[in-house]
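User: quick one, sequence for these tokens?
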């Protein structure tokens, strides 16, 4: 990025304008900041009910990212594939309800990016520790691709890879920081994306971890 465009994106962020990443994709810098205390408190409650766990991919690899879920549906992976399920297989109970502050944040962020009336029924919670990464993938296990995905970054900063419609295509690198929210849908809904191995630089509130919340309409 040139010095000028860097300054420009800085001033856009300061002016609270979304960074437009595509016709259906926007990055809302610091959008979660006003509800942060509530958000982190709710997150602690969720972890106590449905703990983070490392899932196995259909290909037989154990993911470096640990996951949990809340809401009516939770994301699952095992040797038989990826899918959404109504119960936490570890507890045998329904996933914990989506906290009101999660729901409100997701709906408000979607609206800010031009997607009105987004009502997520699934929130996947990803936890990264230093070295953990997410290989390039598409999110395509949801029934309705007309609904966007809202993604909230908490804790340590990460480098997000934003690609095109094919796995081998060129990718853009985006730094994601504590409180940033990405929304993507419409023509960008199926773009490949991933996260580079997390660097070790502890966060003042969350320590040596990054938490990512991704909200979807899965059912
Ligand atoms: C992450 N996020 O940021 C992983 N997927 O840790 C995702 O895989 C993702 O951020 C779809 C839409 C937004 C995302
Ligand atoms: Fe994804």
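Assistant:
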């Amino acid at each position: 990025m040139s010095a000028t465009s860097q300054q420009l994106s800085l001033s856009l962020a300061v002016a609270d304008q979304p960074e437009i990443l595509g016709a259906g994709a926007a990055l809302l810098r610091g959008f979660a900041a006003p509800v942060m205390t509530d958000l982190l408190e709710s997150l602690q409650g969720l972890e106590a009910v449905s703990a983070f766990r490392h899932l196995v991919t259909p290909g037989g690899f154990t993911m470096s990212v640990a996951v949990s879920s809340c809401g009516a549906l939770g994301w699952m992976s095992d040797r038989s594939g990826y899918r959404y399920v109504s119960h936490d297989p570890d507890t045998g109970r329904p996933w914990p309800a989506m906290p009101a502050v999660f729901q409100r944040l997701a709906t408000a962020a979607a609206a800010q990016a031009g997607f009105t009336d987004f009502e997520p029924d699934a929130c996947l919670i990803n936890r990264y520790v230093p070295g953990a990464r997410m290989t390039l993938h598409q999110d395509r296990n949801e029934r309705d691709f007309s609904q966007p995905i809202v993604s909230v970054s908490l804790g340590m900063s990460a480098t997000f890879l934003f690609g095109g419609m094919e796995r081998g295509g060129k990718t853009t690198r985006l730094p994601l920081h504590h409180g940033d929210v990405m929304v993507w849908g419409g023509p960008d809904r199926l773009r490949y994306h991933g996260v580079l191995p997390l660097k070790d630089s502890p966060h003042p509130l969350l320590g040596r971890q990054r938490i990512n919340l991704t909200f979807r309409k899965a059912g």
